[in-house]
Design a protein that fits this description.
alpha+beta, 29 strands, globular, AB_hydrolase_fold, Xaa-Pro-like_dom
Length: 820
């Protein structure tokens, strides 16, 4: 392969793997538009409430769309949010009843202006299932005497358990006065699909067809306003170890989650300053602007990463639409500690003037800026195949506003990068959510609480876990190729992933990132010695999200790559096991991730499966539509064949066992004749090795599904400086390593005989009749290179047990028989 081919492949793969390489573009600070020219400004008024002995209150409301006066949001003029102080007082009676009925708030006045901003509701039941089986709830109340039913939003988020003089018995009523508009009359709605752009939102007074009818506004009584302040400290669920498999019935009928301790989430809108690109004025030049400049700006935004880097200077392409229609904009938000976070807001495609829509937050991968491409780009399909995440354009045309941002320590955001820390990056996202709640286009569930979901891959997947665990305003998450702990993924069995360590470090250096000062020394030490210190391990462990997962209540669609050599399949299984038992969860394996699907490069099957699963999940749990999210487990094998299973992990079949009792000697040397690098270019992945101890695995008689973690048992002795050898499975028909996975096996070379049993990295492979595999024990592999590893290993016993599953169903086909 020529040098130019090497360079071209590296560049293409780097883009596909989400490793952004920034060109030297001195990203200067754009000027703030204090006059509001070029976009609306943000101003917020604090909500205050006072209670009297009679139980009345007159809170002020600064949330857009909730005032009774008319407010016009002109895209070309500053938007000022006035505090309404002269709202009519409305008496509300809330009757709490036993399970089987629902509370019905009644108000003495009606205001259609609030109908376009619904509260969260359960979607209508399917014909063959009860309504409660499809309740897209975020927090659930465990009480049997006062529980939200399928026709109302659960009370644990909007109305936490009341104490003191404000509490009411379960069979009594709570009466108070609020200054809010009443709900519209609910109407039936047919089952909806996720792609209806025209149903994003209507003008004030129009029923929202996305949520199964006009929503009921949560009444703001003295009780609810009293607990509104407490609602800033969202409820958490204590960590619970999941002992049972996730099943389709678990997804269909989640039960109430346990009550928990509050999280310190401040919902006060942060300071936000509109950012005006210095070259945006070029698009306003008569004739020249719309004819020449705007098409160039639009073309630049179609280039992944490059368009996002240049965006602060050129802004968005001007899109002509109806007068007053929402426009995309950028703001600099001041986070909790004063750090400036650069945020992009892109309204749903086709959103009319004064319309509202649910919002999706999409975090970027490490080393990448927040995406600013408004439309579907030519490379979106490739990136969906490779990373398992949908783009901004796809989400906007599915009826969602989209918010992206530069994470702290990267590009135009300030601060230092802390690896998706719950104490830093998660609080930044909470600040973004609080700002979003003030935007006129954002559909709200209550003041300060927008209707939101989150998507994103890799670093953009990790931030979803820490945010959802600490801020329960998040309604659903779709973390793609994310991790459980950085220790298990980057330092498995005390072996440093030098291949990915070098790539990620290079990405941070080349993009000018400002990481925690402990990160670079840890990477350098790992690259040179193959190990990191206990303090550095603690830093990785602290970045979780393993310890936080028990606090996640948002329904989670977990997407993981079968060829992901950075965050392999086990990370997804560990995340599922750590979630509270009743959190709705679904798992999807696709042939992609931080790696390459060598048998099926850029096959569209994966991208379509990922896109459909993501949009259906968001439609169900963010829009509240009666949309099927499919079985508990779906996966795409190395041939692009799509399978489903009703359980995760799937029902286990008889394992395939192979062993060798013959003695063999494995010379331990770095680099030479070992596994990898993939294609001779990438310092990741695995290839069949020449220097190896081999065990041939018996041929299968019928189609067999090997899904899960093989178990390896090794008896050995040896001397030398190596601390690890590596195990991998090779497909004899293609010569490819299953999932590109090489598993580090810790060894003690003291001349004594040792026996160990260890789980290898998970695989998801279909074996055709007659197909064979070979287990290889190798001295070195590209993703775990240690240049000081020498010695000799004498193998006296080697056995492997491959897991199979019995309930895999090929889509469109009958269940296949499985034998071992």
């Amino acid at each position: 392969m020529g040098a130019s081919a090497h360079v071209g492949r590296i560049g293409g793969l780097a883009a596909a793997l989400g490793i952004g390489v920034a060109v030297g573009l001195g990203c200067g600070v754009a000027s703030a538009d204090s006059t509001g020219q070029g976009g609306p400004t943000e101003s917020s008024s604090s909500a205050s409430s006072s209670s009297s002995e009679s139980g009345t209150s007159s809170p002020t409301d600064s949330s857009p769309g909730q005032t009774t006066g008319s407010a016009t949001h002109d895209a070309g003029a500053p938007t000022k949010i006035e505090t309404e102080t002269s709202k009519p007082v409305v008496t509300v009676t809330i009757t709490k009843s036993n399970r089987g009925s629902h509370s019905t708030p009644t108000k003495s006045t009606a205001d259609p202006a609030n109908a376009a901003k619904p509260t969260k509701k359960s979607e209508p039941a399917k014909d063959d299932e009860p309504a409660k089986d499809h309740e897209p709830t975020k927090d659930r109340e465990a009480s049997t005497t006062s529980t939200a039913t399928s026709d109302e939003k659960p009370t644990t988020k909007e109305q936490p358990p009341e104490t003191g003089s404000t509490s009411a018995p379960s069979t009594g009523s709570a009466t108070g006065t609020i200054a809010e508009t009443p709900p519209a009359t609910p109407t039936a709605s047919p089952a909806a699909t996720h792609g209806a752009v025209t149903a994003v939102a209507g003008d004030a007074g129009t029923a929202d067809s996305q949520t199964g009818g006009s929503p009921a506004k949560v009444p703001d009584s003295p009780i609810s306003w009293a607990v509104a302040a407490a609602a800033r400290k969202e409820t958490l669920v204590p960590a619970v170890t999941k002992t049972s498999a996730v099943t389709a019935s678990t997804l269909a009928a989640p039960s109430a989650l346990a009550a928990a301790t509050p999280a310190l989430v401040d919902t006060t809108p942060p300071v936000a300053v509109i950012q005006t690109p210095p070259l945006a004025w070029l698009q306003q030049i008569p004739v020249i602007g719309p004819v020449f400049v705007t098409p160039i700006v639009a073309a630049i935004h179609m280039i992944p990463i490059v368009g996002d880097i240049i965006h602060p200077f050129i802004g968005y392409p001007v899109q002509f639409g109806a007068p007053g229609a929402p426009v995309p904009r950028d703001v600099m938000i001041t986070s909790f500690d004063g750090t400036q976070i650069y945020v992009h807001f892109m309204p749903a495609a086709g959103l009319p003037a004064k319309g509202v829509a649910p919002t999706i937050l999409e975090g970027p991968g490490l080393g990448m800026p927040g995406s600013t491409s408004l439309e579907v780009t030519p490379l979106d399909g490739i990136l969906t195949d490779a990373l398992g995440a949908v783009g901004v354009g796809t989400l906007r045309h599915a009826g969602y506003n989209v918010v992206t941002w530069d994470p702290r320590g990267e590009y135009r955001s300030g601060g230092q990068l802390e690896l998706d820390s719950a104490d830093y990056e998660a609080k930044d996202v909470s600040a973004i959510i609080s700002w979003l709640a003030t935007q006129p286009e954002a559909q709200l569930d209550s003041p300060g609480d927008p209707r939101i979901g989150m998507v994103g891959a890799s670093y953009g997947g990790g931030i979803q876990w820490t945010t959802a665990a600490t801020d329960h305003r998040v309604d659903a998450i779709v973390p793609s190729i994310s991790w459980n702990t950085l220790n298990t993924s980057l330092y498995k069995s005390d072996a440093f992933k030098s291949g990915w360590g070098s790539l990620l470090t290079a990405a941070l250096l080349l993009t000018g990132a400002r990481p925690n000062p402990e990160i670079y020394p840890a990477a350098i030490r790992g690259l040179l010695t193959g190990s990191i210190t206990e303090e550095q391990q603690a830093l990785l462990a602290d970045r979780g999200p393993a310890a936080l997962l028990g606090s996640v209540t948002a329904p989670a669609l977990i997407i993981q790559g079968t060829v992901d050599t950075l965050f392999p399949l086990q990370e997804a299984q560990d995340n599922v096991a750590a979630l509270a038992p009743n959190v709705p969860v679904k798992v999807l394996y696709f042939c992609g991730g931080h790696g390459l699907c060598t048998n099926n490069l850029f096959d569209p099957t994966d991208g379509q499966v990922v896109t459909d699963a993501t949009l259906n999940w968001l439609a169900r749990y963010v829009k509240g539509q009666n949309v099927s999210t499919g079985p508990a487990f779906e996966w795409v094998d190395q041939h692009g064949q799509y399978y489903t299973s009703n359980t995760y992990p799937s029902a286990a079949g008889a394992p395939i066992v192979a062993s060798s009792g013959q003695s063999g000697v494995l010379p331990l040397v770095p680099l030479l004749f070992g596994s990898g690098p993939l294609f001779g270019v990438l310092p990741i992945g695995a290839t069949a090795a020449l220097n190896a101890v081999n065990v041939h695995i018996p041929t299968v008689a019928t189609t067999t599904y090997v899904v899960g973690a093989p178990t390896l048992t090794l008896t050995y002795s040896g001397t030398g400086t190596s601390r690890h050898v590596f195990a991998q499975l090779v497909d004899d028909s293609t010569g490819n390593v299953l999932g590109n996975q090489a598993t580090p096996i810790p060894v003690t070379l003291d001349g004594q005989t040792h026996t160990l049993s260890i789980s290898m990295e998970q695989v998801a492979q279909t074996l055709k009749p007659g197909q064979t595999l070979t287990l290889q024990l190798v001295a070195s592999t590209a993703n775990y290179e240690n240049f000081g590893a020498f010695g000799a290993l004498t193998v006296s016993g080697l056995q492997v047990s491959l897991p199979t599953i019995t309930d895999a169903v090929a889509v469109g086909a009958a269940p296949a028989s499985v034998v071992a």
